[in-house]
Specification:
32% helix, 7 strands, single chain, seven-stranded parallel sheet, alpha/beta, 219 residues
Length: 219
């Protein structure tokens, strides 16, 4: 994987259970973003842009899983380990990704993994927050991006946790792709986007970001 990349694509939980109407925790309208996700994956390959993808990887007994969910801290069973619903959709699946599981890795393991990765890392997680995986922060530091472009689902749950987690850790050059995400609660999602805009987080479309890849600043 590239060291000190100018740009990193952060792919949030683009999994079957979230994006397809048949999924266990379908995000309304999420299948509409599939063509845009395919374009982002292709652009990453074409331009050598590293991708950090996250994926829920649940088992019975996980704190987030409940038969009586409150849809705030608990949710119905979804993305259960080894199921079709837990898989990344075809548009974002990277079979060459280095998978970071739940075991805490030491610094040397992370450095070797990132160095050997074919421009893609897949971070598994038990909670909606990507930083609940003990390795995420160190993996991100090893990639050392200057600009992070965020997309995927759900905007008002896992994307929110990713953006807020990055902001809290001092990452200030963030772009959220408004047309490549969907929210469980669209009204909540719109309020969240406005909050981020006021904070100084860039809101952009896929077309705008991909057009910018031809400019020297993002080359």
């Amino acid at each position: 994987m590239q060291r000190n990349p100018e740009i990193l694509f952060w792919d949030v939980d683009t999994q079957v259970d979230f994006l397809l109407p048949s999924g266990a925790l379908y995000v309304p309208g999420a299948e509409e973003i599939l063509p845009l996700l395919a374009r982002l994956t292709a652009a990453a390959r074409q331009h050598g842009i590293p991708v950090l993808a996250t994926a829920d990887d649940h088992e019975d007994g996980d704190a987030e899983i409940s038969d009586r969910p409150d849809f705030s801290t608990t949710y119905p069973p979804h993305c259960m380990h080894g199921t079709t619903g837990q898989r990344k959709v075809a548009e974002t699946r990277r079979n060459d990704a280095w998978t970071v599981g739940h075991r805490r890795l030491d610094g040397a393991e992370i450095e070797r993994g990132v160095a050997a990765a074919a421009d893609a890392v897949l971070v598994l997680k038990k909670r909606f927050d990507a930083f609940s995986n003990a390795n995420t922060e160190a993996v991100l530091a090893a990639i050392a991006p200057q600009h992070i472009v965020i997309y995927g689902v759900a905007l008002d749950v896992c994307n929110r946790a990713a953006v807020e987690g990055l902001w809290q850790r001092g990452y200030r050059r963030l772009t959220v792709l408004t047309d490549a995400t969907r929210a469980l609660d669209p009204a909540s999602g719109e309020r969240l986007l406005e909050t981020w805009r006021r904070r100084g987080i860039e809101l952009a479309t896929v077309d705008r970001v991909l057009a910018g890849l031809r400019e020297p600043v993002l080359a």
